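PROTOCOL LOG
Step 1. Enter all chains and additional molecules of the complex.
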Amino acid sequence: MTYFAGEYDVIVIGAGHAGCEASLASARLGCKTLLLTLNLEAIALMPCNPAIGGPAKGHLVREVDALGGQMARTIDQARIQIRMLNTAKGPAVHALRAQADKNLYQWEMRRTLENTANLDLRQAMVEQLKVKAGKVQGIVTRTGALYRAHAVVITTGTYLKGRIIIGSLHYQGGPNGQLASTKLSSNLKQVGLDLRRFKTGTPARIHRDSIDFSKTVIQPGDEENFPFSFAGTPTQRKQVPCWLTHTTAETHRIIHANLHRSPLYAGDIQGIGPRYCPSIEDKVVRFKDRPTHQVFLEPEGYDSAEYYVQGMSTSLPEDVQVAMLKSIPGLENVKMMRPGYAIEYDCLDPLQLQPTLESKVIEGLFSAGQINGSSGYEEAAAQGLVAGINAAHVVQEQAPILVDRSMAYIGVLIDDLVTKGTLEPYRMMTSRAEYRLLLRQDNADERLTPLGYELGLIDEARYQSFLTKRTDVAAERTRLEKITLSPSEQVNKMLTSFASQPLKAAVAASQLLKRPELSYANILQLAGETSPLSSLVTNQVEIQVKYQGYIEKQQLQIEKYKKMENRIIPEELSYSELEGLSREAAEKLAKIKPRSLGQASRISGVSPADIAVLLVYLEQRRRRGGIVHVG
Amino acid sequence: MLEDTIAAISTPPGEGGIGIVRMSGSAAEAIGLATFNFASRVDKPITHHLYYGHVINPINGKIIDEALISFMRAPHTFTREDVVEVNCHGGILPLTKTLEIILAQGARMATPGEFTQRAFLNGRIDLAQAEAVIQVIRAKTDIAMELGVKQLVGQLSREVSAIRKPLLTILAHVEASIDYPEHQDVEELARDEILRVSILCLDKINTLVATADKGRILREGIRTAIVGSPNVGKSSLLNVLLGQQRAIVTDIPGTTRDVLEESLNVGGVALTIVDTAGIRDTADEIERMGVERSRQALADADLILYVLDVTEEWVPDNEIMRAIGAKPCIIIANKVDLLLSVDILTTLSQTVAPKPLVAMSATEMLGLTDLEEAIIQQVFSGSVRAEESIMVTSTRHKNALLRTHTALSDVQDAINLGYAVDLIAIDLHSALEALGEITGENIGPDLVEEIFSNFCIGK
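Step 2. Run joint prediction.
Step 3. Record the structure below.
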C-alpha cells in the first residue's frame, strides 16, 4: 500500500558524505529538496578512519569548498588535529589532513542540514525508484510513502545489499552496525542499471585506557592552524596527537596460523577490494619479507575513548583479531571495543554515467559516492556536490556544469570514473592528475570560486575577498618585477648567507626569486623592502614566480587538451555505421558515448587513428548541416 | 593535435633527385626562417615564391643542404594553413636531416594522411573526397600498425621496456612517497638514486638513438663513401658499380665537384654510395664546398671504400684515416692493370691490415667480384651487422626517444638545481609518456599497479 507523501524538486537517497553535499547544493540553489536516510543518527557517518584530507583527498576537500560545498567548513569545526603533509616535496603536493572528532563532525553536519532552507530531512528506507518513459518520477519508501521528484540523486554508499564478514560469520548489514538497504538494488537492476559487487574493510577500535602509550611514538599535529575552508581560519583548538606502533613477528605468525579462517582466502568474499587498502592479512601474505608493518593509533574524538587502529584492517575472526592486537607493542592489554570487518556491497557501473553524473539510462537520475565505484569520504563529497548542482540544474532547466581534468581533481575523479570505469573502489591519488602543478590545494579558489559564485553557492562577501586576494597577488608580482637588485657588496654578502650564489649583474627581484634556495622573505630582505600582505597572498606570489616555467608548460598542455574537449560529439552518433573505426573502438564508443573528442581519446582501445576518423566524420556532419561543433 | 605544426617528407623515398620536406601550421613560417639561409637578403619572403639558399642547423649554423624554399601563407594553400616547402637537393640523407632539424625546432611528425585530413577539416577539399581521406588514414595506419606489432615483439620494444621499467619504478616510488607520506615503506627516494637511474636511462637512450642510424641502413641502405686522393679513380669505380656513366670523369684532379649519391644492390644488400670530391686544400671556391661536403659524407658513412692508385706511391691521407677511425673500411687498390709487379700489392696488404685490400681496375672492370664479396663480408660478419640494426627505424620513434632524452636531462637539471620532487615527477612523467608513444603503453594504470605491487600501503 503506497500513499502520496509529497512532491519535491530533488530527492537525495542517503545522508553520507555524498548525500550531504548533494542535498545542500540542491537546496542552496533554491530547489525544494528531500534528504532521506536510513538513520538520522548516522548522518555524515565516518565508519572508517577518523580523518579527512591527505594527498589528493585534501585537494578535493579544498576544491569542494572553493566551489561552495560544505565538507571543509564542517571539518574545520570538528577537527582535533591538523597537519600539512608533504611540505618538503613542493607546493603541488602539499596536502592538508585533519583528524576528526567523529561525533562532532556528524553533529555539525546534521545541524547545518537542519538549518538549511528548502531542505527536509527524513528517516526512511527507499525501496523503489519510480521511472516512466526513461525518466525518473520519484521514489517509494518501505513504509509506502510515495514522493514525487524531478530529479533523484542516489548516494547509498556501501548500504546496497550490504553484507558484513568477520571470519566465517557473515550477515546482512550496513557499516558500523547500520541497517543494509535490501530491496533498492534489485529495483535498480530492473530499471536498466548495471550493478557490480565491491568490497572494502575496516580495522578494530580499541579502548584508550588499554593502550600503553609509552611503547608508541607520538605523532603530533602542526602548530600552525591551517584552515580547510577558504572562508577563514577556524578558532584554534586543542590538538590531540596520534600514536605510531608496529606489528611484530608474533602478529605475522598469528595471521599465518589462522589464514584458513580468513574469508578472503576461504573464498567467502566475492566482491572486488581495493589494492590500495589491503587488509593486514593481505599485507602479510603479499609482502612476506617485511618484518613489521606500521600501525597508527588514532583518537576518534575529544571525548570518545575509542581509538582507530590504522593499518590493521581485517576480516579475520574476532578471537584472532584480539590475539593479533595483543602482539603489538603498547597493545598487550588491549580492550577491543568493536571488531574489524569486511563489507560487500552493490554499486553501479560508472560507465553508464555522463560527466554530469546523470545516468545515461534514466533521465533525471544522478548518483554520487561509493555507489559510483569510488571510495573515501572526500571522493564522495566531491561527486555529491557536482551531482547536487546538476540535479538542481535539471529541475531549473539550466545547462549542467562540467568540471574537467584541467580545472580540478574533482574533474579528474569524475572523468576517470565515467570514461575509464573502475574495477576496484577508486581512490583519488595525486599521480592521477596530469596537470598536478596547476591543481594545487593552495589555488583551488583561483580555479573554482568564480564558478561557485556564478552558480550562487559562494556569497558576495567571500567572492569579494577572493577578488581582493587575486588583485593583491598580481600587484605584488608586478612590484617584484620592477625592483632591481644590483651586485652590491651588501646584497652579495646576504646572498652568501642564504647559501646562494652572489650576483654578477643587476637582476629583477622576481628573477632572483626563481632560485630554489631563496624564499619570498629572503628577496624582500635583499631588497630592503617590507610587505603588509598576508601569507596567503605572498605564498601565491612565491609559487607563481618560482614555478613559472613549469606552470607555462602545463598551461600549454591544457590549451591543447581544451581544444579536444571542445569538439563535441553528438549523442545520436551511430558508431557502428562509421567506416574506418576499429571494431573495438566502435563498441567502446557506442557503450560510453563520449561527450567530446577529448573524452573519446581517453577510452582504452580507441587509437589516434580512430580519433582522426571521428574528426573527419564530425566535419562531414557539420558541413551537411547536421550538428555544429564548438572549437 | 589540432593546431600544432606538422612536417613530413612529402615525396616517396628513393624517387628522383629532388625531395620535398613539407610543413603545415602556424609555426611553419617561423621554423622555415630559422632553418634557412637565403642566398640573397630576404626580409620577409613573398608568399608562393621560390627562394634559393641553404638549409642550416640553427643550433650550430652548419649547412645541411643546398635547397629551394617556398613560403605559402594561408588560406591559399593545400591545407589552408601556412605551408612551407623545402626542396632539397637530393638523396634521402639531406631530406631526413632537414626533417630532423625542422622537428627539433618544434614541428611534429605528421601522422599518415594528416595533411589531407587538415585540408579537409579546413574546408579545402569536398565531401566526396572525405571518404578517401579515411581510407588513407586507415590504410596507412594498418600498415604502420603491422610494422608496429613487428617492432613490438622485437628488439626495440625490449630495449624501450628496459628503459621504461626502472623509470616507472622510481616514478612509482616518488608518487607513493607523495600519496602516502607517512609510510615507512616509502621513505623518500634519495635524489641521488633518481639521478643515477636517469643517467643510466639517458645512456641507453643515446645508444638507441645511435642505432636509429642503423635502422636507417636497413631502410635506406648502407651509406657508403668512396674516398681517396684526387684522380685515383673514384668516379670510375662508382660508374663501374652502377654500370653507367654518371660522374664527370676526367684526368684533371678535382673534377668531381659535387657529392654524388646513388643506390645499388650488391649481393642483396642495398648500398647508398656517395662519391666524394677528393679531400684536399684548395683555393677554388666551388671546389672547397665540394671538399666540405666530402668531409661530411665521410663522417656520416657506415662503410668506406678507400681508393688508392697502385701506380703511385701511397701516402695515407691523415685526415681521411682519422675520419675512418674504427669504421668498416675496404682499401681498393685501383689501376692494377697498369701494375708491373704484384709485390707492391703484398706490401700494401700488410700495411693496411687488418683492413681488407681489394685489387681492381675500375676502367678494365677487373676485381669487381672481389669487391662485392668484401662488401658482403664487411656487412654480414664485420661490424655493420644487419640483425642488430633492427632497432629504431622510424623518425617518429627517434623523435620520441629524443623527447625522452630532453625530459631526462630536465630531471637531472631539476635535481642539480635543488627543485622539489613535484617538479621532478613532472619531467619523469614526460619521459615515460614519450617512451609510451613507442610501445603504445599508457602510464596511468601501469603506475598505479607499480605503486601497489611495490609498496605495502593501506589502512
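Step 4. Note key features.
Chain B has 14 helices and 13 strands.
The CA atoms of residues 90 and 365 of chain B lie 28 Å apart.
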